[in-house]
Queue: 2 jobs
Job 1
Amino acid sequence: GLGLSVKKDENFGEWYSEVCKHEMIEYYDISGCYILRPWSMAIWEIMQTFFDAEIKKMKVKNCYFPLFVSPGVLEKEKDHIEGFAPEVAWVTKSGKSDLEVPIAIRPTSETVMYPYYSKWIRGHRDLPLKLNQWCNVVRWEFSNPTPFIRSREFLWQEGHTAFATKEEADKEVLEILELYRRIYEEYLAVPVVKGMKSENEKFAGGLYTTSVEAFIPNTGRGVQGATSHCLGQNFAKMFEINFENEKGETEMVWQNSWAYSTRTIGVMIMTHGDDKGLILPPKVASVQVVVIPVPYKDANTQGIFDACTATVSALSEAGIRAEEDLRDNYSPGWKYSNWEMKGVPLRIEIGPRDLENDQVRTVRRDNGAKEDIPRGSLVEHVKELLEKIQENMYEVAKAKREACVEEIKTWDEFIVALNKKKLILAPWCDEEEVERDVKARTKGETGAAKTLCSPFEQPELPEGTLCFASGKPAKKWTYWGRSY
Ligand SMILES: O=C1CCCN[C@@H]1CCCn1cnc2cc(F)c(Cl)cc2c1=O
Ligand SMILES: [Mg+2]
């Protein structure tokens, strides 16, 4: 049918699923797997074009490692994969016959790549080694699958870099994190917080984890947007990735790994969609402007169609992604709803009056504003409108997220804020067992609260401030909440 059957604020889960099904994904017969249709694949490609160009400026090179991992390699370090083992997918047969040894499908590629890093890195001249791959990974998770946010197979990029010094690694971790912030804030118009993960939440195999964290006001859940880890020398030790330094001494390399995935698209949908459907930020919209003719019984229909075609070519020549919808089997009204559902940021209507006045009518998808524009200044007006839409979508989302933030000092305030679906900013003693204790005490059907990150931008922490959970001296302000 035409519209959505539920409202975003009434039944978020159903709303999200229906919005995704309007040409972003198709459900698949294997649970947790989804078909990425062109409407969402185009978003992935636009982000990939940006990110790929940026990492190439950083001298990162793309490569491709095999999908399959032999068990010996995957299970090289028990502690690295402890806890993850249940989500590893295995190939056990080919045709009718069993494989001698089952083969794992990569859930991430450290164990696939690092034996070769050990082989390729001999001396300091082999450093820094900076490789990235655009690929899919498989994690056979059992918690409720959600299109883009949590699927058993997803697309991502995984960067794996090796340096001679910790300083170089520390620097690159933050450079990549800034690119992730740009993907979210400049392309997807989604505000994120940059911060450090707690010892409990970080990648266990690494030294420290930084992340960009988003927040979904409707569900009151944080969502990890992307991660940039410094692995220290842990994997160098595990996989003997050593190099001979200038003085002829053998040293272990310092490594990073970093990733973002198709989860980015789900965060964008959840953030911007409304009861008419998706709203695409212009930067990532495969169609930024849709031009719709509004013919009138005996008016000059051909003239209207020609004006639409001319408008699309003028916009396209200026690098704007514009399309006309001249289908004669749908009414203008039907077309308005259809393209609004798909989230096209700007609609242009051309009817008899517009033809006479040599103008077009523009309608913004983000706030519904209508404006008549003379055809003579069409291109710069539309460029301006698209920039305003991009900016407005970010500002609106940022204001909504800020309205969810609640600063608290005590346990009681924490519980009240948690139940009000807030993004909680709390003074914390930064002790692991305190975080584990908070998780245990907040366990419930809607999931436990945990740390999301400790923001790099720390508010003032007055001397003597106590941890909200343990009463011990607080060391830092940390964002807490339920999460995806
Ligand atoms: O997040 C990134 C950036 C890109 C490269 N990887 C790291 C860490 C990935 C953690 N992680 C995440 N999930 C996993 C699932 C698994 F089944 C196994 Cl065996 C391992 C892992 C695992 O190590
Ligand atoms: Mg996982």
Job 2
Amino acid sequence: MTHIWVNDQLMNRNEAKIDAEDRGYQFGDGVYEVIKVYKGNLFEMEAHINRFYRSADELRIIIPYTKDVLHKMVYDLVEADQLNTGHVYMQVTRGVAERQHYFPDEASATFTAYTQVSDRPVEQFEQGVKTVLYDDIRWLRCDIKSLNLLGAVLAKQAAHEADCAEAILHREDIVTEGSSSNVYGVKNGIVYTHPANNLILKGITRDVVFRCAKEQGIEIVEEAMTVEELLTMDEVFFTSTGAEVSPIIQINDTIIGDGEPGETTRKLQQAFEAKVQESITI
Ligand SMILES: Cc1ncc(COP(=O)(O)O)c(CN[C@@H]2CONC2=O)c1O
């Protein structure tokens, strides 16, 4: 039996009860994080916690724990579930109150966190994936990791129906990011990706890849690509907590490069793997 934090109670997963008037349930009024666990070790935990609090602050949601207490709660959850490889999903909502759009005067945040076993998608790393293009119909605060995911849900559904792993989003002609990932193009060994502003989520994996690129002497230019530029890149890849560094070999009907994962992508995959291994202290 796995466990779940519901506020400050760690209980069996099937005992959790969430009120029908929780604002996360009714309005998507909350924020979340997905944290990878490798051999029982939380990867980039501090960065995820910092982004979690920043997202909550942007929505004026008060997380009722200090960062240290929250870190311990997540650590204890992984221990309780003896999670080896997988992820922790955690979220905080503005809480339970009679349904009204404006912030309720009286509501205390609802925090939940649970673990999920999830293997690393090794075949995806090795072979690369097909993707589709999809209009970025999301709101203009994509830098907040909010529960408002309908734009991403519809995009991912379109990818799923096309037997693809990801949808690449674009606002008119400008490529922003994936439905649940950051997207990069490589031309002549230089990596291009959308600037970290309100139109994308500044991924934790993106930050690790930036560090890896610097160490490897690979130039990254934070400059938005047009759809046409993306389709004519030598290499394309995407990153997320779950996808790590995954090559993209096809976008709609366009084969990227020679249809195989590229050299720069491979270098970044190897450098990222070294970071993963470093995080495993046992
Ligand atoms: C819209 C969006 N952009 C970028 C990313 C990549 O961010 P990280 O590198 O920090 O993961 C995510 C991750 N979304 C999480 C990752 O796994 N499932 C999700 O919903 C995302 O949802």
